[in-house]
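Progress note, sequence design subtask.
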């Protein structure tokens, strides 16, 4: 029995030595691209009515102010990077209303700064998917994103245009 155990251990070690010789891929570099965001959202008539049902009175457009927590978590030599971002906004302050909105978006950014993403969104008007696209312009260590997000839902569509800035830091 002991002979079989030693033979099995020897065979396992011999076969696994090729795995020990393999090199692992490099650890993915991350970058923090968080920063303030501001802009406006256009609300369809259905969304305005849905909010009115909850005693929230707004017009067809509202301001947006907030913060985007963004991490670049994978980069290729081609310049394509994967990003994940949480966008927390407060809208409607100019109408004496504070409408919170939270989105989690996962997407891709090209070397030139074009970006595309999708993820869940939650607001007082309900939950839906957000589809976002935009362009990030770079000036030294400063990034200036300009994004358009479309959120179709059962009550209607919301379209947001946001900008802001972040400092590129690793």
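Output:
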């Amino acid at each position: 029995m002991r002979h079989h155990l030693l033979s099995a251990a020897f065979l396992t070690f011999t076969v696994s030595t090729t795995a020990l010789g393999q090199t692992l891929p490099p650890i993915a570099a991350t970058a923090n691209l968080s920063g303030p965001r501001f802009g406006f959202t256009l609300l369809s008539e259905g969304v305005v009515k849905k909010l009115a049902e909850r005693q929230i009175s707004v017009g067809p457009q509202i301001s947006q102010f907030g913060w985007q927590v963004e991490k670049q978590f994978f980069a290729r030599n081609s310049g394509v990077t994967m990003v994940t971002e949480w966008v927390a906004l407060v809208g409607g302050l100019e109408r004496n209303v504070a409408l919170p909105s939270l989105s989690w978006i996962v997407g891709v950014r090209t070397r030139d700064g074009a970006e595309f993403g999708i993820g869940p969104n939650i607001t007082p008007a309900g939950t839906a998917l957000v589809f976002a696209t935009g362009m990030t312009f770079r000036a030294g260590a400063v990034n200036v994103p300009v994004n358009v997000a479309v959120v179709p839902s059962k009550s209607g569509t919301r379209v947001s245009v946001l900008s802001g800035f972040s400092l590129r830091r690793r």
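The chain has a mean pLDDT of 86. Work on this subtask will continue into the next period as scheduled.
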